[in-house]
Amino acid sequence: MYSSSVADAPLVREPVHAPVAHLVRGGLVEGIHYGSVVILDTGGQVHFQLGDIEAAFHPRSALKPVQAVAMVRAGLPLDGELLALAAASHSGEERHLAGTRRVLELAGLTEDDLRNVRDLPFDPVVRDDWIRQDRLPSRLAQNCSGKHAAMLYVCRLNGWSLDDYLDPAHPLQQAIAEIVEDLTGQRIAQVTVDGCGAPLFSVSLHGLARATARITTAATGTPEARVADAMREHAEMASGSGRDVAALMRAVPGLLTKDGFEGVQTAALPDGRAVAVKIADGAHRARVPVAAAALARAGVDPGLLTEFAGEPLLGGGEPVGCVRPVRALDPVPLTACA
């Protein structure tokens, strides 16, 4: 299915994106979202591609399941909702904060040991309530705090230093980089800094889809399967209440999916079918319907995906259009567009 060798790093170049979605208003194309899409079949081969799937890009938080696998391989003993939280871009709900505190307690650490940036909760409703209570930005509320707490736990268990755990040369980050290359099947092109402060490893969109497929097809009990099971069984812990990725995992049996800032999404089924999406302008409104269309083209029952076809465009408070994936990707649209 997959080669055990690791290919060269993807080229660092300006990606040649293609139109992936049209902004349709009143039957006319008002705007175009560019991006790239890849769909893998059960054998790991490219079933469909659009745009540039081989250029180096930043997968952002869509790489978190891979990072979580690396931490489990390095001895992270978490399972269930706490392991889901380790792979999460959480919404900042109280359960996410409580879970992060619990991971820190297991490590014998506190919020002061975290080195992610301070931020307000990601979810708008939670954030507004936080502001009404005059609560300040905190490391705990930032959407990557579960991952950072798990990183610290792994460092404590392995006797690695804590203060510099975000240094790309740290043993933890070296271990993560090794698994990124193992699961994507390619060398890392570049290392930079993600929004939370952790190292960000650049791979290709094709490599991201391959890594997600490898996680979902792994044997029961392996680190990959443990991460996949935790995220699917505790989808709201891996994201949040009302988040589209949690709803998608509930809607499609066996699906593992993860989003990332700047219009990235990856998803895979237990039989190895996988998709990965990058919206060039980072638009959330295009990410969701394009990802849904890619899953439908991969063979997922379209009836399970209609709620992810995108929000309608309004004119005078009434629906007058939509964001519609291009015909090449979605020859039979999930929903009609006004």
Strand and helix layout:
Elements: E1 18-25, E2 28-40, E3 46-50, E4 56-57, H1 64-73, H2 80-86, H3 94-106, H4 124-132, H5 145-158, H6 171-184, E5 191-193, E6 199-201, E7 203-204, H7 205-216, H8 223-233, H9 244-251, E8 256-260, E9 264-268, E10 274-279, H10 284-297, E11 313-315, E12 318-325
Antiparallel strand pairs: 1-2, 1-12, 2-3, 2-10, 4-7, 5-6, 8-9, 9-10, 11-12
Structure in words:
By secondary structure, the protein is an alpha+beta fold. The protein contains 10 helices and 12 strands. Strands 1, 2, 3, 8, 9, 10, 11 and 12 form an 8-stranded antiparallel β-sheet that branches. Helix 1 runs parallel beside helix 5, helix 2 crosses helix 5 and helix 2 packs across helix 8. It is globular and about 60 Å long.
Q: What pattern of helices and strands is seen along the backbone?
A: EEEEHHHHHHEEEHHHEEEHEE
Q: How helix-rich are the residues, as a percent range?
A: 25-40%
Spatial separation of the terminal alpha carbons:
43 Å
Indicate the mean pLDDT: 95
Profile the largest sheet.
8 strands, antiparallel
Strand proportion, as a percent range, falls in 15-25%
Low-confidence stretches: none
**Number of DSSP helical runs:** 10
Q: Globular, elongated, flat, extended or rod-shaped: what is the shape?
A: globular
- Class from helix and strand fractions: alpha+beta
Rg from Cα: 19 Å
Strand elements, count? 12
Question: What is this structure, in a nutshell?
Answer:
With 338 residues, this protein is α+β, with helices and mostly antiparallel strands. It contains 10 helices and 12 strands.
